[in-house]
Amino acid sequence: MCPITISHTQLMTIHSSELAKELRSFVAADYVIEDEETKRPYACDGLSTYCEMPGLVVLPETVEQVRQVLQTCHRLQVPVVARGAGTGLSAGAMPHRDGVVLSMAKFNQILEIDADACTARVQPGVRNIVISEQATDYGLYYAPDPSSQIACTIGGNIAENSGGVHCLKYGLTVHNVLSLELLTMEGELLTIGSEAFDSPGFDLLALVIGSEGLLGIVTEITVRLLPTPPLARVVMAAFDHVEKAGDSVGAIIEAGIIPAGLEMMDSHAIKAAEDFAKVGYPTDAEALLLCEVDGTVDEVEEHIATVARVFAEAGATHCRVSADEAERLALWKGRKSAFPAVGRISPDYYCMDGTIPRRHLAHVLMSMQAMSERYGLRVANVFHAGDGNLHPLILFDANIPGEFERAEAFGAEILNLCVAVGGCITGEHGVGMEKIRQMTAQFNDHELAQFHAIKRAFDELELLNPGKGIPLLKYCQEYRALQPRPQHTQNKAMD
Amino acid sequence: MADHSAAIKAQVESAYQQQRPVNIIGGGSKSFMGRVSVGEPLNLAQHSGIVAYEPTELVLTARAGTPITEIQQVLAAHDQQLAFEPPAFKGKATLGGTLAGNQSGPCRPWQGSVRDAVLGVRLINGRGEHLKFGGQVMKNVAGYDLSRLQAGAMGCLGVITEISLKVIPKPAVSSSLMVTMSEQDALVLMTSLRRRAIPLSGACWSAGKINLRLAGAESAVNAAAKELGAHFDATSADAEQDFWNNLREQQLSFFSSDQPIWRLSVNPASPPLPLHYSKKSQQIIDWGGAQRWLAGDFKFEQVQLLAQQAKGHASLYRGRNLKGEQREPAKGEVFQSLPAPLQALHRRVKKAVDPAGILNPGRLYSWL
């Protein structure tokens, strides 16, 4: 696959071997990586079509070492790209050719669980799922659960403001973090947020969460934990039309229920998932919904009955309620394996991440079908239906010349359509390198200039993750000219 | 009920060109909060009205000057509500002011704050540019989150003109419980409840009594009320409703004290504040222990220290009552002091949004 390179605004003012020598004066020699072979695994994150070999990789073991790495790079004006588990899907952790990859992998300790305050103090390299595993002894858990939760780290979750299938009810990372320790590029350690529910001054926590490693390096995090609900059950419903499925989601909300999870798959995704997981999804359905309800036993029974009734009234062709935990997990297994399942029916797939107001779902899916025919590429859809977050999976074969470029253009057109109907270009994967061009569809030059001003308030020399997240204004004109135009839909907010 | 954003933008533009400070005013219900800001009044109250409301999407968009009461009425017609239960301050509180002052009511620990409900804003920065951040969808991670950054910024980071919020369905039923209890026992109870999956939506210790509120599915509320109720007094539904309304609206007799009122936002599991016995009665503990109100003639340094010991921060919420609606204006700082590096970062962030320092200068801190 052709690597995509970024424009270089800074050049390393020092040869990488000299920098390595300097870093080894305070970081263990083995943890400053110079050789090509050992650096190679760091060349990309979860979006492997974007890669670049870094100048150096460094794995500090203490906060003091991180501070020194930053101070050294600041003094020498060397770009720094922070990295967690490298599971990101927007090339946010793609290295800079002349920069340092700062891996936080050594910071993998849970420092404290305070069961009285319902909080956990953790290091950034702790994997998301480990927090809930450790908290379960206290009857608590950490709510945001991105699909990659087995592998992804909490530090990366902070960078991307990660969501998951439960965010309609329990919120995103930004709703579940109380405080951060943040090192600035100049090496100053700041405490952002507190153990209370708010903090004096500006809500910098909101600004830092989701900032994709552009504002600072997070060295410690205090997250909020929630009591584990005693029971969760799921209802599966099949529909012969996506519009009926979409409408039924609105009807559930209207019935006063906020589901813990509400996922939808289109016919391509249903077939692939059933073929892969064999959990009994009806493969003749045009749309499948999984609606999970959690809470106390009485509450779940009450809500499950309502959900089943709403699905029946909305014209579901098939409806199944999980009788026990094994069946609940089985019904989810198909959805959770949708990505690898699609991976089986196509050599490659490109996962998009747009959000839309849910009422436009049928229109967006139909437009996508038309695009699919025009680009000559299949698309399967999995959808966090509760919160309007679409994950179209564009199927392509990277070995066929031009297919990846076609898939990218198709993806860009989908994102522009999301913006046109009142949504946005990324719900949870972040902008990174991948969606830098689409930023110009969502934001005008004044807004982008405002972002750059905020960036410089934290990182004056713009050394943290340069070239990601926010496009440079000088390229915006060009990016806008390159945008594939969706069939424009007026966003009638009051319709 | 009209869009006045063009006039507001023009006023900010001209203030920027002439480097004249503006004093942003919504309904004027929170003029007692923060420090006094001098500047040409910039009125947002007329810039009012609900722009969009999609009950099935759980999203409402309204102009900054829209009264909270108007929003509550429109939502109630669809059996929905604001998640964060803000005070309406006799109909004067506006949505913009509620966000700028980060005002959330008794249910905040369980249902989130106004900041948590924000999905997107339109705002005019200190250069007079009208900008849009976030959106009308639950998830949006493109660009920095300048929307939630507005919570508690007291207008220092932009003139908010429009806000999109996540709203929630009204709970099917709610029920309250009350019993006389010591401060220590009340805090122990709050901590034990925090760890349990029960439909709690309020936990407040006031006037020597613990008050709990349950809200949610009928079966869950009834089960929890039955289990907890054995230890509580029977109260009338009206009296319960009055208590929570008065707490939310800051109308309990505690708030009519002539004394200055201090707000301490602390780790909810902190023990009782080490106060002299005579001061104990002048305290309300809300948010399941996380928000502690004190009335009294304290020194700010003293209250800041108390808050720090409880892993939180303090503010002088309201100065001494003078007459009528008049409050003694704050001469010094009213919000907890920040460490020097954080202060410097605040200055740089302020400058990034408001380079000439014309938006509510000094309202949050004397140096900002």
Provide a quick synopsis of the model.
The complex is a heterodimer of chains A (495) and B (368). Chain A is an alpha+beta fold and 495 residues long.
Helix-strand layout with pairing:
The complex is a heterodimer of chains A (495) and B (368).
Chain A: H1 16-23, E1 32-33, H2 36-39, E2 56-58, H3 63-76, E3 80-83, E4 100-103, E5 110-114, E6 119-122, H4 128-135, E7 140-141, H5 154-160, H6 167-170, E8 177-183, E9 189-193, H7 204-208, E10 217-224, E11 226-227, E12 231-239, H8 242-254, E13 261-266, H9 267-277, E14 287-295, H10 297-313, E15 318-321, H11 325-336, H12 338-345, E16 348-351, H13 361-375, E17 379-384, E18 389-396, H14 403-420, H15 439-442, H16 445-458, H17 473-482
Parallel strand pairs in A: 2-4, 3-4
Antiparallel strand pairs in A: 1-2, 5-6, 6-10, 7-11, 8-9, 8-10, 12-14, 12-15, 13-14, 13-17, 16-18, 17-18
Chain B: H1 5-18, E1 22-25, E2 40-43, E3 50-54, E4 59-63, H2 68-76, E5 80-82, H3 95-100, H4 108-111, H5 114-117, E6 118-124, E7 130-134, E8 159-169, E9 173-180, H6 183-194, E10 200-206, E11 209-216, H7 218-229, H8 237-248, E12 261-265, H9 277-280, E13 283-286, E14 291-295, H10 300-309, E15 313-318, H11 340-353
Parallel strand pairs in B: 1-2
Antiparallel strand pairs in B: 3-4, 4-8, 5-8, 6-7, 6-8, 9-11, 10-11, 10-13, 12-14, 12-15, 13-14
